[in-house]
Amino acid sequence: MRKLSLKLGIIFFITLFCIETFMMFFLHTSLTNSRVEEELTSLQARGNSHRTILERNFDKETLAHIVLMESEEDTDVVITNISGTILASSNPHPEIKDYINQLENTVPYNGEILQRHWQNEKYIATISPIQKQQRTVGYVFMFQNTVSIHALMERLNKHFLIVGFVSGLVTIAVIIVLSRKLAHPLIQMKEATMKMSNGDFSVTLSSNGRDELSDLAIAIQHLSDELNHLRQDRKDFLSSIAHELRTPLTFIKGYADILYKRNLTEQDRQKYLGIIIEETNRLSHLIRELFELAKMDENSFIIEKECLQLNEFLENIRGKLSPAFQEKQLHFNVHCEEGLTLMADAARLEQILMNLLKNALSYCSSGDVISVIAKRQDDLVSILVKDTGKGIPKKDLPHIFERFYRVEKSRSRSLGGVGLGLSIVKELVQAHGGEITAQSKENKGTTFILTFKGVKKYENNTTH
Ligand SMILES: Nc1ncnc2c1ncn2[C@@H]1O[C@H](COP(=O)(O)OP(=O)(O)OP(=O)(O)O)[C@@H](O)[C@H]1O
Ligand SMILES: [Mg+2]
C-alpha cells in the first residue's frame, strides 16, 4: 500500500468503527434492558395493586371487576387460589399450572418476575401473592404480550441502523477530508524533496499553520532556498574565475604571438615581455588567492593561536611595507597601546593586515595618510586600518567582502586586483572568532575595523 492518505484513512476508519460499534452496542443493550425492566416493573406494580384490592375484598364481584379492568388493557390477569385453580382470568393462560409447580419457596410479598425472556416467549409474566392474616390464599398472575416490546425493539433497531449508517458516512467523509489534509502537505514535501534531489531547487511549499508539518515545510523551503543560493553562488564564482583567468591568458597569448611572429624593435619586445610578465604575475596572484579560498572552504587550514605582542608585531609589518609606502609618497603610522597582546595566528594575522594595507596602498594617492591603530576596549582588541584615500561609494560598501567584487573593475584591474583580498580577510578574521567591518566616505577615506575577543593585557612580560 503506497498511498499515505489511504493508510491513514483505513487506520482512522477501523479505530472509529470499533469505537462507534462498541458505543452503539452498549447504548442499545442498556436502552433495551431499561425498557424491558420498566415494562416488568409496571406489570408487577399492576399485579401488586390488584392484589391489594383483593386482600380487602376477596369476593366474586371484585374478581370480576379486576378482570373487566384488565380486559380493556393489553395486559392479562389470572387470579388463582393457592393450589392453582383459576378463579378468574381476562384471557386463558394454561401455563399457570407450570408456574405454580415451579414455585420453589414462598413467593415474596412484593411479588416476583416469572418470565423475563421477552425474546423467545410470547409473554412476560409476574406473580403477586394474595395474603390474608399472613397466609397466602391465592396469586395474581399478570401477563403482558411481548409483541409490543418486539415492535419497540424493531423501531429501536431501525433507528440505530439509520444512525449507524449516517454516522458511518459522516465518519468516512471526515476521515477522507482529514487524511487528505494530513497527507497532502507530506506528499507536497515528498515531491519537493524529489525535485531538489534532481537538482531543481525552485520549490514553493505553502506553510499555513503552526504545527510540526508547517515547521517541516518551512525547513524544507529554507533548505531549498539555501541550496538555490549556494548553486547560484557557485555558478557566479565559477564564471568569475573563468573570466578572471581568460583575461590575462588572452593578453599573454596575444603578446606571445606578436613576439613570435613579428620582427620587433628591442623597445617593443621589452614592452610586450613586460606585459606578459605582469599578466603572469596576475595569474599566479589569482591562483594563490583561489587556493587560499579553497583551503578555507574545505576548513583544511588550521589557526594556531599564540600570544602576540601587538606593538612588536605591527612594527615588523611597518618595516616590511614602509619602502612601498614611501615610494608612493604615502604617510604610514602605527599606534599601538603599550603592552597590548592578542591571541592569534601570527602568519594569518599578518596576511590579514597585509591585504588591508596593500589595498590602502593601491587605492590611495600621494600625500594620503594610512594609519594602523590597535587599542583595547573592555575585553576586546580592535585594530583599525585607516586611510585618507578615495573611499568606497555607499552603494558598493555592503558588497566589498564578496568574492570578485571590485568597485571600479577597470581601475582595480589595472592595479592588479582580482577582488578576492577582502573575502579572504573576512574568512580569516572569522576563523579567529573575530569580526570585520568597513566604514567609508567617498573622497574622505576608508576605515576597516577588526575586532577580536578573548584578550588579556600583557603586563610585566607575563603571558596570561
Ligand atoms: N582602502 C580602500 N580604499 C578604497 N577602496 C577599497 C579599499 N579597499 C578595498 N577597496 C575596494 O574594494 C574592492 C575589493 O577589495 P579586495 O581587496 O577584495 O579586491 P582587490 O584589491 O581588487 O583584489 P585582490 O585584493 O584580490 O588582489 C577593491 O576592488 C576596491 O575597489
Ligand atoms: Mg585587495
UniProtKB/TrEMBL annotation:
Name of the protein described by the UniProt record: histidine kinase
**Places the protein is found:** Cell membrane
Its main localization is membrane
Q: What is its EC number?
A: 2.7.13.3
Domain spans labelled Histidine kinase:
240-456
Q: Which PROSITE patterns match?
A: HAMP, HIS_KIN
Could you tell me which InterPro entries the record lists for this protein? BphY/WalK/GraS-like, HAMP_dom, HATPase_C_sf, HATPase_dom, His_kinase_dom, HisK_dim/P_dom, HisK_dim/P_sf, Sig_transdc_His_kin-like_C
List the membrane topology term(s). Answer: Multi-pass membrane protein
Q: Which Gene3D superfamilies match?
A: 1.10.287.130, 6.10.340.10, Histidine kinase-like ATPase, C-terminal domain
Catalysed reactions, semicolon-separated? ATP + protein L-histidine = ADP + protein N-phospho-L-histidine
Coiled-coil features, chain-numbered ranges: none
Transmembrane ranges, per UniProt, are: 6-27, 159-179
Q: Which SMART domains match?
A: HAMP, HATPase_c, HisKA
HAMP domain location is 180-232
| This protein's UniProt keywords | ATP-binding, Cell membrane, Kinase, Membrane, Nucleotide-binding, Phosphoprotein, Transferase, Transmembrane, Transmembrane helix, Two-component regulatory system
Name the source organism. Lysinibacillus pakistanensis
